[in-house]
Amino acid sequence: MGKYSIGEFEEVVLLTVAILYENAYGISIKEEIEKRLKRKVSVGAMRTALNRLEKKGFLISEFGEATAVRGGKRKRFFKVTPYGKDALERVMETRKQLWDAIPSIAFDFKFA
Amino acid sequence: MVEDVEGDISELFSKRSKQNKLKAKLFFTLDVLLLFRPGMIRNFSPINKLINYAMIRNYLKITLRNALRYKGFTLLNLLGLIVGIASSMLILLWINDEVKVDKFHENSDRIYQLFRNVHQGNGMISTNRAIPKPAADLMVSEYPEVNELALLSWEIEVLMEIGDDANKEEGRVASQEFLNMFSFPMVLGDRSTALTDITSIVITKTLAEKLFGSEWRDKAIGTAIRIDNQYDLVVTGVIEEPGSNSSIRFQWLASAEAFISQNEWVNNWGNGSFGVYFTVDSEEDARVVGERIENVILDNTKDNNLAGHETLIVHKFSDYYLYGNFDNGVISGGRIDYVRIMTVVAILILIVACVNFMNLSTARSGRRSKEIGLRKVMGAYKESISGQFFLEALFYAFVSVLFSVLIVLIVLPYFNILVGKTLLLDFTQLQTWYFLVGVMLSVGLLSGSYPALLLPTFNIILSLKGTIKQSPTSTFFRKGLVVFQFAISTLLIIGTAVIYKQLDYVLNKDLGLDKENLVMIRMDGDLGQRSETFKNELLNIPEIISVTASSGNPINYGRSTSSASWEGKGDQEHEVNVLLTDTDFIEAMGMEILAGRAFQEGFADSTNFIINEVAADIMGFDEPIGKDLSFWGIDGKIIGVVKNFHMRDMYEPIAPLIITSFAMRSYPLALVRVNGNMNSALLEIERITKEMNPVFDFEYEFMDQAYAESYENERTVSIQANIFSGIAILISCLGLLGLSTYTAEQRSREIGVRKVHGASVNQILILLTKDYSSLMLLAFIVAIPFGYYFMQQWLNDFEFRTTLDPSVFIIAGILTFVVGVLTVSAKSYQAATVNPTDSLKDE
Question: Does B39 reach chain A within 8 Å, measured CB to CB?
């Protein structure tokens, strides 16, 4: 873990940002998560996660153009940094390692 | 950050409101509410950290610049703090050492000691540590609460011989449990067996080095030492010499068994002998022992109608050093009084130093007003400005602590000589660091508190204009501080003066005998038995007027008996002291006979007695001369009453005394009155003594010197008090110097105008000094009642004491006043002599 410390929700957000690629901003991320994972996400919770990820250096952000539908407020677009990608790979790897380490018999529930 | 979140929320709202307007509004509210989370309301990024390094660096930089800019002022400020901290550090080291005495024994919490209360007929109780040995035996055999019990004798001086080498050494005899109970570190030998054998002796490392040279480690154990030219003891152990952290001192410890078998008298219930120490498991057990033992002596001496009324009490051994004074059988203090006095002095000095700092910083605050104003304009909070001043004070405290540690390290050797200790600033001990940091923080916070609370309240505009006027409250407060400082200084000086006066009184008091030009010679070995010959030899020396032999030093005498009886004596018991002398004693001592006559050669006076006034009062005769008196089985008559003389120190009343010329087998002391050249007389005395007693070294003491030395403790306290009250007034004056400089600066234009209008230098001097003089007067008035109260308390310990007359206060007051006024006028004079054109040309 160490410098790649990342929470479950943070991981989800980071992955979603990657999925959305060039169109990752507040609402799109929120809706994508709600659509794919079927779970409710509040604006506040997501913002906190995004802020944290940005502070850790997993994300960078920049403002886009202003649009009328948002009352003239600009969107903030997020992008995964190479460092963020490392973190995600690292998480996957550790998961994989753990899966590989499970003896086959552990999940053999036939006689349980 | 806010912008895009706002955008997000309004986008959501517009999407939702396409379906259901009300629901959208509700969700909007919910979303907004959910935004109130820690990371979003306020960002705890470095710029708002609780500790702001950049600003702290800036504060320190400004502090340094200010310190360097006003060097004189900084010096005054630091000097006050340094001197204050260094002196209180020294005092606290001393206190720390005092408090720790006898606490180094592993069992020190569990060791208790017996004390014997001797009830006298006049209602007085005198307390001592010499306990009848049977009481100790009883405790061992019948008291289950007592774990271990040790006997320890008083200090005994013996002659130690190895080969041709002879030394006189003081030590004690102790029972074998002694070394187990007390944790004196053993260098060689086994502590549990070292004193088991009847011929065993344990010596200190110091003594071992003296007796056996540098190879003592190899030579000492197993070697026999000839004691008093009578018997041989074998060294079974070497022990570290007890230092100033122990109230029990010795150079050697010998097995008590031999002593007990040779001295039958110790087995008598009526004779106090050894000190008795014992361990118990708990305080409760000690209390139980105390209850059971109280009347043991009475119970066992019922049949003996000559026995006195004596009870036993139990006290913790490690408390005895500090609480060693008994008043009527109850602990009434002791060295703890001095420890308390010095603690108060240390704290007072520290406070005076802090007050100084406060005063100087606030007085000079005008200089800083622009800085404060500017900081405020740039958005500094009040808190950050007070933080700045706290930090500044802490910085000064830090620097002062550094310097005071340096000073303490330099001064400590001299201070050790003064107080007779081996104090050490031990940096390997965590305690020292706690103490240093503690002093730094408390001095910093205390001295920074007032400036830090006052300065940030300055009005921005006024402080930027530089026309900040000190508010009446702050001026009042500062004056209050000056009064406080000087009151403390005056108080300390009053204390010093009273201690000095009492000491002077004690040393110069008429003791009832002439202690000048009196040489005391110990008659060692069998010289005491040949005292008549010795006397006659000495009298041949032309400078010697008279010689007398006596059983002890008459002004430090404690041999007593309670078994005297006289005509018409009631049931009451009285402890009566007995002094054994030859017939020349009264005359040689220069004592005054009030009634009857002194002993005379050829009068068969060996069963005649002389009593002192106190004894005469107790016996209650109208005409004591010729009355019968008997003690120790000697029946005789009173032939004279001698004027009271002081047999003990001034803490105690004069005790009743019987002087007898009943010939003693061996007198321990010869008293020689010399008239003329003391040096040549001493040379002759030495020659004769050596001739008659070649084995022993010639040892002598002057009675007046010995007397003065017995007040060493008081003298040390007096010197300490002297030094530290001097320091307190020095610090106060440093403060005053700073303040008067400041006033003189503030009023420079006023002085200029006054001079232009024809004021003389003197008038201006008076004008400037007037304010501070009245403050010092006030301080004096404040100090008097406190000084009176405390010093009367101290004097009450003495049975014979000087009076607390106004002269003491007046001297202290005048001294403080003069020093203070001189300080103020030094600066004021400078201000008053300035050419008015210089101070007025800016206007």
Answer: yes
**Residue in B with minimal Cα distance to A65:** B4
List of residues 6+ apart from A59 with CB closer than 8 A: A14, A17, A50, A53, A78, A79, A80, A81, A84
How many of the other CB atoms lie within 10 Å of CB of B136? 24
Structure tokens at B175: 């029972």
d(CA B373, CA B370): 5
What residues does B278 pair with on adjacent strands? B112, B149
With tokens 């040379």, the residue in question is B683
Q: What would the pLDDT profile of B361-400 be if each residue is shown by its tens digit? A: 777 776 788 888 888 888 888 888 888 888 989 999 999 9
DSSP H stretches of helix in B221-316: 256-262, 283-293, 296-300
Q: Is B172 helix (H, G, I), strand (E, B) or coil?
A: strand
- A50 backbone dihedrals φ, ψ, rounded to 5°: -60, -45
Is residue B272 within 8 A of residue B265, CB to CB? The reply is no
On chain A, the residues whose CB falls within 8 A of the CB of B28 are none
Q: Which residues of B touch A53 (CB under 8 A)?
A: none
Rounded distance between C-alpha atoms, residue B663 and residue B665, angstroms: 6
Query: Which pair of structure tokens corresponds to residue B672?
Result: 């020689």
CATH number listed for the domain at residues A2-99 = 1.10.10.10
Tens digit of each residue's pLDDT (9 = 90 or more) over B282-328: 888 888 888 888 888 888 877 766 666 788 888 888 888 888 777 77
Q: Residue A71: list chain B partners with CB under 8 A.
A: 6-7, 10
Q: How many CA atoms lie within 13 A of B762 on its CB side?
A: 0
ipTM over 0.85: no
Kindly list the domain boundaries of chain A, sorted by start residue.
Answer: 2-99
